Amino acid sequence: MKIYAPNIHLFAFALYKGANVDPTSVQADKIQLWQSADNIVHTTLNQDLHLSQRIDIHKEPGSLRVDLLKDSEVKDGNSAVDVEGKISFDTQQVVIKGLVSPLRLHDSYGLWLNLRRPEKEDDTRTEDVDIDFLSKLNKNNCFTLEKDKFFLGQTLLITAWLTGAKDEKLLPEIAQECLEAVFPNPSQCPPFSRQGELFGSPIFEYGLFKLANYQHVLIWLFRDSKADENFNLCYQELLDLFFFRTKVVKAYQDSRITYHAVASAYKEIENAIDKLPKKDEYDEVTTDELKDLKNKLKELPQLALKYTRLLRNLEDYQNTIVINESNYSEKLQQIGGIIQNGDLLFLKSFSQENSPFFQKQIQADLGYFRHGSSLLEQALASIRGIVEIEQAERDIQQAERDRSLENTIQIVGVGLGAGAIVSGVVTQHIDKINQPLSAISPNNPPHPFYASLLLSILATLFFSALAWLWTKCKN
Q: In the predicted model, what is the mean pLDDT of residues 428-442?
């Protein structure tokens, strides 16, 4: 099956600044987006583009949209680098033309790269080519860019003119053949998503958001010159539109990664709470359990901080989607102003269906996981209550033990003091210790030494009892 004047348009985007990146310190030749453009041109046309040497990434730093090509590289107001070469196809050398346009959009870099079979050569219409010709433009799958931490995403737009009268039923088959020609490896071929019409010509979309290797591909088959002319009229707005779309999709994809992180943190919270000792008001908390509870008071706030940050990230992604959906809708209005009576329903479906779904999904995640914060707060309050009550009880017990010991010391001290006084009297009779013992009678008094000893013991007991009574009354 043949097509006429096939094109591949790459719209790719990458952040040029972030929370930990100073854009003024970045070197142009280190930016993956420009290296990817060099690789595509070299792989397809065997030419060295050296794009990073032709641009000024610090050009007009205050502007939201800047063509980054150096002024010395701009020719006749064209802020893109034109490329031209030949490729071998059906034993012939076929001319390929294209352009490379580097831009800065808001907080990101943008790249529009086009390779095409020209519609005319020397004012003569070029011949139709087999659909397999598209495989020559995407050698080694070079149009699928490598992803780094700054890469946002890409849209691959394949356009071609339909030749002769085509049965409408054959259009999906033609689009599928074009897709398989661009991606001959089935594992790299994105699945079909939907179809519609744009500017009066059929357009097919491929790529599913739920897939980890999501890639956005559009195949637009021109019935007549209307679609091609309208595309040329608003290609800048379409580039902006794809940029805002990419930002929305990227935010949603990142939110799914954060979702799994939040789910894991939520599980940590549940496990930490399940491991807390189950106590009622009559159970005693052991020393080891009290120590473990105090450790939990140190661990759980750190987990709470991590959990709160993850929830905040989810909210940030939701806000990013809202902002860029609004920008997307505004850009659609601009396109509607340029193309009068243009049917934009195919493009509107993203802002009317996909983006609202993303927002609802994140909102549902936030609604569910916010319970985790309440759970943590309740757990921390419960642990603090247990620790404070147990610590207070132990402090009271310790104070009682301290008072008991103090009383004991006072009682023993008084008794021993009194005994010491009496023992002083005993020493006065020590010289009589050798006197013989005799029965106690009115005419025979007790032995002086043993009488003194008995008095000393009785005095110690008497004054100890008085000290005990005094401490008892004082308490």
A: 56
Residue 373 pLDDT exceeds 60: yes
Residues 199 and 227 sit within 8 Å (Cβ to Cβ): yes
H-assigned helices in 200-344: 225-233, 235-274, 287-338
Amino acid at 39: N
Tokens of 173: 């088959």
Q: Which of 85, 102, 17 is nearest to 51 (CA)?
A: 102
pLDDT in tens, 239-260: 999 999 999 999 999 999 999 9
On whether residue 242 sits in a domain, the answer given is no
> What are the DSSP calls for 148-159, one per residue?
-TTEEEEEEEEE
User: In terms of domains, do 214 and 345 share one?
Assistant: no
Query: pLDDT band at 371, cuts 50/70/90?
Result: confident
Give me the residue label for tokens 């901080």: 305
> 197, 194, 220: which is closest to 207 by C-alpha?
194
- Decide which of 332, 360, 394 is a domain's last residue: 394
Over pLDDT 90: what percentage of the chain? 52
In this predicted structure, what is the pLDDT of residue 279?
Answer: 55
Which of 240, 237, 188 has its CA nearest to residue 217?
A: 188
381: three-class secondary structure by DSSP: helix
